[in-house]
Amino acid sequence: MSQMDYWLKDQQARGVDIDAAKAKLKKLDIHVPLWLYRDTGTRFGRVHQEDSATADNIFEVAAALHKITGCLSSIVAGGAVAPEDVARTKARAEANGLKVSTVHGSYTTSEGLYYGSLTNATSAIRKEFTEYMLKQIEAMRVYGAKYLSIWLPDGTNFPGQGNFIDRKKWLIECLQEAYDHLDPDMIMLLEYKFFEPAFYHTDISDWGTACALCRRLGPQAKVIMDFGHHAQGTNVEHILANLIDENMLGALHVNASKYGDDDLIAGAHQPYRLFLIFLELVLAERYSGFDMADIALTVDQCLTMEKKMPGTIMTVENVQIAYAKALLVNLDKLKELQMKNDVVGAAMTLKDAFECDVRPLLRMVRAESGLPVDPFAAVAGL
Amino acid sequence: MSQMDYWLKDQQARGVDIDAAKAKLKKLDIHVPLWLYRDTGTRFGRVHQEDSATADNIFEVAAALHKITGCLSSIVAGGAVAPEDVARTKARAEANGLKVSTVHGSYTTSEGLYYGSLTNATSAIRKEFTEYMLKQIEAMRVYGAKYLSIWLPDGTNFPGQGNFIDRKKWLIECLQEAYDHLDPDMIMLLEYKFFEPAFYHTDISDWGTACALCRRLGPQAKVIMDFGHHAQGTNVEHILANLIDENMLGALHVNASKYGDDDLIAGAHQPYRLFLIFLELVLAERYSGFDMADIALTVDQCLTMEKKMPGTIMTVENVQIAYAKALLVNLDKLKELQMKNDVVGAAMTLKDAFECDVRPLLRMVRAESGLPVDPFAAVAGL
Amino acid sequence: MSQMDYWLKDQQARGVDIDAAKAKLKKLDIHVPLWLYRDTGTRFGRVHQEDSATADNIFEVAAALHKITGCLSSIVAGGAVAPEDVARTKARAEANGLKVSTVHGSYTTSEGLYYGSLTNATSAIRKEFTEYMLKQIEAMRVYGAKYLSIWLPDGTNFPGQGNFIDRKKWLIECLQEAYDHLDPDMIMLLEYKFFEPAFYHTDISDWGTACALCRRLGPQAKVIMDFGHHAQGTNVEHILANLIDENMLGALHVNASKYGDDDLIAGAHQPYRLFLIFLELVLAERYSGFDMADIALTVDQCLTMEKKMPGTIMTVENVQIAYAKALLVNLDKLKELQMKNDVVGAAMTLKDAFECDVRPLLRMVRAESGLPVDPFAAVAGL
Amino acid sequence: MSQMDYWLKDQQARGVDIDAAKAKLKKLDIHVPLWLYRDTGTRFGRVHQEDSATADNIFEVAAALHKITGCLSSIVAGGAVAPEDVARTKARAEANGLKVSTVHGSYTTSEGLYYGSLTNATSAIRKEFTEYMLKQIEAMRVYGAKYLSIWLPDGTNFPGQGNFIDRKKWLIECLQEAYDHLDPDMIMLLEYKFFEPAFYHTDISDWGTACALCRRLGPQAKVIMDFGHHAQGTNVEHILANLIDENMLGALHVNASKYGDDDLIAGAHQPYRLFLIFLELVLAERYSGFDMADIALTVDQCLTMEKKMPGTIMTVENVQIAYAKALLVNLDKLKELQMKNDVVGAAMTLKDAFECDVRPLLRMVRAESGLPVDPFAAVAGL
Questions:
Q1: Chain B interface, mutation test: which of C113, C114, C119, C194, most B Cβ atoms within 10 Å?
Q2: What is the rounded CA–CA span in Å between residue C38 and residue A281?
Q3: What residues are paired with C148 via a beta bridge?
Q4: Of C44, C158, C195, the CB nearest to B108
Q5: CATH level 2 (architecture), domain B28-308
Q6: Alpha-carbon gap, residue B280 to A65, rounded angstroms
Q7: What is the mean pLDDT of residues B161-185?
Q8: Count of alpha carbons within 13 Å of D184, Cβ hemisphere only?
């Protein structure tokens, strides 16, 4: 009996449908912003990595990583809105087998960063950024992109600096104007963030605020949950469940954090949390009519100390491991123990899946999908 | 020229309407749970204070403190629902010039604490607690109380222990049944809490969750914001502004905290934060049609190391100082500087009020209201 | 080829010495306070579990759990100091094959809890608690116990309540008197804690304070690190490494926490962190002359929602899994990659061990030690 | 009777020696890094303020602000070590009536930022930064500067990336070499920081680590406490008291923070905390033989949204207010109430000073020192 046969027999004994799990894993689609592959930095300065992409080769780099992983073809484009830039981006993406799924603009021009973009007390600046959103929507039409992804650096540093409610009204006015220009199949994504770059308050500080805004805008407005945009100690998977239950989840920004919006490699510090997040998605597909294809699972990391290419592979590996383990949870048994208030039993049901080594399963999935079985080796060989 | 004349002249120069401020201060009504005056403790044991009230004299103690402060006549009663208990409580309150404004039950019977009350997987327990709510509503009718105040200790300690969404559905079902029994002038108050006594998740963990529940229930459901029920670093005054703007604020639970739900004396650690909280209320009255009389400003403290009587006076003193300073902010000047993005100017406009010594104003208000000018001395003389 | 053979071959390929790992796992000795098996609670009330031990059967329960796990024979006794109590505890422990390794007294008599024990401004109270420590040392002589374990609930709730430095001086005086009574083979353990039950300051708030105290006392004073006694976001394994490097580590209090001193089951929420903690111990044994037998690895949990017996098994299971995985890290490869600043490579070297399923190894170790291979089944059968 | 007479009479009644307080306030010396006056930013980009200093006029700007405030003549110079740069800086400082008290180098060259400076696994890089320290010490000799101020961006982003103890050893080696080159009247200052720019661990993460390093180096090594370099919820004033008691305090980095190292204007968010910090300094001067002149009280802020000139005035104003209020605390009364465990009384003794309006006192001090009574007006008129 081969080692793989043993593995499959074990899983059968655990009551898991491995074929269903494999099918799910094969459909995994991770959206990725192009800037993931480029140099980035901290407030103390820019950091260069020798394997960073350049403006010239970035689509080729993205394509190479998609070819190895099989799940990185959906691209998040920056907010360049000049028609020639949009056309060129589209052409380069297509030439490399990629597709722009999302437009994610920058609201941090120097003036906007000072005192806000869509919440700036100066109406001319609000107008400028509103028009910028409209142009992004035009770009989306060119790309055939579904998501207008919005994160604002807006907030204040001092008590008294701004009036929370004035700013909220301005924000709604601006967003509403953009919302009204969306095509019916477009989704406006609003991202909340606990702090940074503003430190006293951020205008969209938590999921409650983001939901309140989406409710005012309409059903095409949804929330982005970035794993690192919460206070210390926040139960992120609970918020995720709530967002799905409120029909408000539009996207997940995948990364890891220890303190704030650290934008580190997903699963590198708390793999169990990443597993619990995926478990909520698996539970929602089972019980809540949720479909993972309806949200944009997006990498939002800022690799500084890590080389870009193996760092990206590590991201995918960790996500796949977390997802695979979540798919190995025996949901029927879990529910049964929950209904009996068997606390240790229910907790151990999760651990029983988490402790499995799922790397044999990932290798099988990769082989069946015609992908390199060892993506680290593949990327090292580029 | 007397010292008070100088003080008033200074305020006039600052552009503040002192008569309006005095009128507001005189109307301040702080709801107070009777158990504030009784012994309490920590998980390590009960703590006795020599000036704690007993079951026998608690209404007399409450009345004495109201007589000194002039703002403590609205009483929060526990959830005793036996008709004879309710009748006796009502009679004793009235005999002492007090009024039950709020019923706040306990959902922590031993069985409920284990695995939840309204979110317990066992339907019989959920039913038991639902019926308890209905009886509390009956008690409210006897008292003429406006508020049904609900804080649940419900939550889980371990990943997997419960299904977030199942629990949310059960919770809504139970609350809806109680909600449907409310009289038209009653308000159901839902309190959220970040953690404790459950540590992995609490079912109503944040204001976003509380608002979502209230929206499903109906317009008589409102949110309680306890200052200490948030993650570290949370901007509480921003949430307060949001709750008012969403028409969701029902009550404030006043206290201080450094780490969690420490339930310390309000304003003792971060008086500037208490000032900022009152400033949001003052701003909402000025700009948002809000009326402070529409919410229950309630003390929710757990005095362990502090003597009860002076501790209560310290609470009132700190609240009055914070409110008085908020009333001294020149709102017109603040708005003007905000609209010009004058960050330092706007921030200093708040500080300019906060740095005033408002104790002369409080003494004036007390004297005009026929109250002891020095409440600490008055309580020491009891 | 059997499944186990495959497993062993894989580990051989990873460059791991499985025999050495098994030897380490067999020596694991987890000290356990007797109260782990008894009812406990939160500040909202006591919680009863049907399988809790009683005063009558507690030694039998402890013995039964040791018989199943093979690593729970070292007992932490409470601070009862009456000679007859000490004699009885000793006799009952020995009759059940257990050994008192540690005396851990309570400094929370009501008076002490109010305003401190060894830091109380009233010298008579400090004297009382100092004498209590001396009596505990006498009890240690009877038991043949090595550790005097000290956690103080001392601290203040309000700025101004106490003078930090006065209290520190009093604390050192009291501890020094006890320290001077220690036998040469005894260790005084000082536990630090970030907050609770005091909320403004705790007198021994962090490892820096604990080390400063130990340095003044002498080489027989060491620090207890409880995993849950830190601020949110603290890198606990880094502190652990520092304590070992400063020759200050005396004991670890093993548990899990999400917010504060939650005292949940170790490894239930962040198994990767538990792995990283054990990795520091493994690294210290390899590189720093550290010996795990020189510290007291002690469970410090407070089971409320969990049944005591399976909860204890889950604790042991999680600890063994974490330790086993740490023993599977290829330390040579790790060092080599660290020296090359290969960030992803080094990070993946840890993950490469963590992702292994070590339960086959644990079953092998148990079988070889004559213990039940499935301890959950064994405890269910009691 | 004038308003000031009333004020003085009140303070006399409070038992405060106003002449002593005035003398202390007049001696206040706030060290200031030149870059405070220049443009700065966040990780999202640089922010320009219209009143920022340029390379050309920075000494003139610093001199102008010192002329208005009377307390900003001690300058922190960056780490430029070329002899011609050092000479020019010295000449420009002296020509403007300023004095370089401190040299604060940058350890964030791109290579250093990647993987550490003094903790880098590559010995050549450690050597390079060590030599840089030696050159800074030479520059200190030219300047007649007392302080070598060291903050390292060193740390790791991932578990496994580095070995904590290897890095600590390298760090000590490098620091020791620099320490051994210090002149007898020089102080080496080590700054700790909880996180950022590294997110998994920082090599000098807390005051315990910093003290441990200083102890190994020798008595001329002291600790810098930056108010914003701690975990959420940390009692900063307690650490300050401990550092003084351990004779380890070398400098304070003054600023405000709400989440992390926000570097906001001191006292703008939690003025009571700033007051409590100054109270510890006042207590230490009274009871512990501490002298405020022995430490470097240094502004460490990063003004982005605020204009530089009024922002600096606001900093000084807030510091002076906090210090003045701390000087108004009746320390004898405080001690007496602490010794009686009168919690509310002791807490209110602090509040009794904090609630005083000390701006009349500051105006008196400024007038007597020949400084503009209203520094905001003075700076606006520049």
A1: C113
A2: 38
A3: C103, C188
A4: C44
A5: Alpha-Beta Barrel (3.20)
A6: 51
A7: 98
A8: 0
Tell me the C-alpha distance between C288 and A84, whole Å: 62
Indicate the SS3 state at residue D163.
coil
- Both tokens of C99, joined, read 């050994």
Tell me the two tokens of residue A315.
């991201």
| The CATH number of domain A28-324, selected from 3.20.20.150, 3.40.50.620, 1.20.120.920, 3.40.630.30 | 3.20.20.150
Q: Could you state, in order of their start, the residue ranges of all structural domains in chain B?
A: 28-308
Contact C176, C131 (CB under 8 A): no
Site of tokens 């689509």: A59
8 Å CB contact between D246 and D214? no
What is the pTM (predicted TM-score) of this model?
Answer: 0.98
Residue A378 phi, psi dihedral angles, 5° rounding: -65, -40
- DSSP 8-state code for residue B56: T
If you search the block for the tokens 């590559």, which residue do you land on? D122
CB-based contacts of B301: which residues, under 8 Å, 6+ apart?
B36, B254, B255, B263, B264, B265, B266, B311, B315
Q: Which two tokens stand for residue A172?
A: 């709604």
Percentage of the residues of chain D whose pLDDT score is greater than 90: 92
Chain-chain contact of B201 with A238 (C-beta, under 8 angstroms) = yes
For the stretch C26-43, pLDDT in tens is 999 999 999 999 988 888
Most distant pair of Cα atoms in chain C: their distance:
73
D381: exposed, middle or buried (Cβ count in 10 Å: 0-12, 13-18, 19+): exposed
Is C268–B197 a contact, with Cβ atoms under 8 angstroms apart? no
Nearest-Cα distance to chain B for D9, in Å, is 11
Give the minimum alpha-carbon distance from C289 to chain D in angstroms, rounded to a whole number: 13
**Residue holding tokens 């051994």?**
D180
Q: Max CA-CA distance within chain B? A: 73
Pair type for strands C99-104 and C74-78: parallel
pLDDT digit string, tens, across residues D288-304:
999 999 999 999 999 88
Contact present, A205 and A194 (Cβ < 8 Å): yes
- Return the closest-CA partner of residue D25 out of D254, D283, D362: D362
How many angstroms separate the CA atoms of D74 and C304, rounded?
Answer: 58
Collapsed DSSP state (helix, strand, coil) of residue A137: helix
| Closest CA of chain A from B25, distance in Å | 22
Q: Specify the pLDDT at position B48.
A: 86
Dump pLDDT digits (tens) for C211-234.
999 999 999 999 999 999 999 999
Question: Options 3.20.20.150, 3.40.50.720, 3.40.50.12780, 3.30.450.40; which CATH number does C28-309 get?
Answer: 3.20.20.150
Looking at this predicted complex, what is its ipTM? 0.97
Within D12-157, strands assigned E span 32-33, 40-42, 45-47, 74-77, 99-104, 147-150, 155-156
CA B222 – CA C201 distance, rounded (Å) = 35
Residue of D nearest to A48 (CA): D110
CB contact under 8 A, D45 and A113: yes
State the DSSP code for A31. Answer: B
Place of tokens 């605390």: D329
Q: Which two tokens stand for residue C349?
A: 């070297």
Contact C47 B232 (CB under 8 A): no
**Is A103 in contact with A134 (CB distance < 8 Å)?**
no
Q: Which amino acid is at A358?
A: V
How far is CA D185 from each of CA D137, D148, D243, D289, D292, rounded to the nearest angstrom? 12, 11, 20, 20, 17
Chain-chain contact of C265 with A354 (C-beta, under 8 angstroms):
no
D28-328 CATH: 3.20.20.150
